[in-house]
Design goal:
The complex is a heterodimer of chains A (about 280) and B (about 90).
Chain A: H1 11-29, H2 33-88, H3 92-150, H4 153-201, H5 214-224, H6 226-239
Helix pairs in contact in A: 1-4, 2-3, 2-4, 3-4
Chain B: E1 2-5, E2 9-12, H1 18-33, H2 37-54, E3 56-57, E4 68-70, H3 77-84
Classes of the chains: A mainly alpha (about 280), B alpha+beta (about 90).
């Protein structure tokens, strides 16, 4: 069977040898064949538990990302509406600010969508790995009892070796799948945490951001006291005080989370019209 | 012979395919040797696609060692190197 399988440094061969070596090493540690079977079965059950927990962990992480995506989408919709409202009120500067934030939110959203797809794929892989291992573990249990009951010591050793090597390979495969899923989940958790922090800080416009939402505050204020504002602005112009109100405190680069002071031109008086 | 694709399971492949698979494997190895990530991904894809197309899935309840074990489709070259470095893979 190994005839012709002698390509030096072959990828297939190297991977195969790694798995085989580990199984043999574990096998060598066992003195009593029965002990080998029972011990292996115990480890299989533990691994089965572990892979099921892994599936649950990935699912939890995926759901968290899903919630964040929904939140970011709502946030993006809201900023879009604010931009329209600002534009129809003649405040192009406010509209520009809203759209700039929306673009940051969209960037985060696109990133999350990629991560979400990756988590979904890990979840599917782990789920089918768990199913395969489950079937193998059931089969192993039966085989273990048959070998114990039926075979002579010499025969048993051969069959035990085969069963052990076969199941070890499956376990190595599943173990690797769990490891990869854990790595991806950990990366995802870190990103999700960072986005939660951005939302909490107000740098990333949160859909429920009452106190942080300076754009909305500005729009509301314009709606409530538009006449007063324009009157005030007209008076200031007459008196030669061009100083702008400073309510707009949001950073321009909303997505990178910097809390830099607002540039002065972000809060021009309404009659300034064209912000360029 | 039984061939395992990591993450996918085992397939029964006719022994006569050995030479062809070795050829695909050599292409893969060459890409690894020259640190060619794109070439590596393409060669791995080709090797796995061939095995999937000529192999028949082994019943999941069968416990048998594989003659060959192939990396999973999305294993990056960096991960492959890590695998070769032999980091705690098998539990028991």
């Amino acid at each position: 069977m190994t005839k012709g399988m002698v390509a030096p440094m072959s990828v297939m061969k190297r991977v195969t040898m790694i798995f085989r070596a580990k199984a043999n090493k574990a096998l060598d540690k066992m003195e009593d064949p029965r002990e080998t079977l029972d011990y292996s079965y115990e480890t299989q059950l533990q691994l089965l538990q572990k892979v099921r927990r892994g599936v649950a962990d990935v699912a939890t992480s995926r759901k968290r990302v899903e919630l964040q995506m929904n939140q970011l989408q709502l946030s993006s919709n809201k900023l879009d509406k604010q931009a329209r409202d600002a534009l129809s009120a003649g405040r192009e500067d406010l509209a520009r600010e809203a759209l700039s934030r929306k673009s940051g939110v969209q960037g985060q959203l696109a990133d999350l969508q990629t991560q979400y797809a990756s988590l979904q794929s890990e979840e599917e892989k782990l789920t089918s790995a768990a199913e395969r291992l489950q079937l193998k573990v059931y089969a192993f249990r039966t085989k273990k009892e048959t070998i114990k009951a039926t075979y002579t010591a010499a025969e048993a050793q051969t069959r035990i070796n085969e069963a052990f090597t076969g199941i070890s390979e499956e376990m190595g495969d599943v173990g690797m799948a769990i490891q990869r899923a854990e790595d991806k989940t950990a990366q995802m958790q870190a990103r999700a945490g960072a986005i939660d922090e951005l939302m909490a800080s107000g740098a990333l416009d949160d859909v429920v951001s009452g106190p942080h939402d300076d754009i909305q505050a500005e729009l509301d204020r314009m709606g409530a006291g538009h006449d007063v504002d324009s009157e005030l602005a007209r008076m200031k112009a007459e008196l030669g005080q061009g100083s702008a109100p400073r309510q707009l405190g949001g950073p321009a680069g909303a997505a990178d989370g910097q809390q830099a002071p607002a540039p002065a031109q972000a809060a021009r008086p309404a009659e300034a019209g064209d912000p360029e | 012979m039984i061939v395992r694709i990591l993450g996918e399971g085992q397939l029964d492949v006719d022994d006569s395919a050995a030479d062809e698979l070795n050829g695909l494997d050599a292409t893969l190895e060459a890409a690894v040797e020259r640190h060619d990530e794109a070439g590596y991904a393409a060669a791995l894809d080709a090797l796995l696609a061939r095995v999937r197309s000529i192999g028949t899935p082994v019943d999941a309840a069968v416990i048998a060692p594989s003659a060959l074990i192939l990396p999973q489709a999305d294993l990056t070259m960096a991960e492959f190197r890590k695998l070769l470095a032999d980091e705690g893979l098998i539990h028991g």
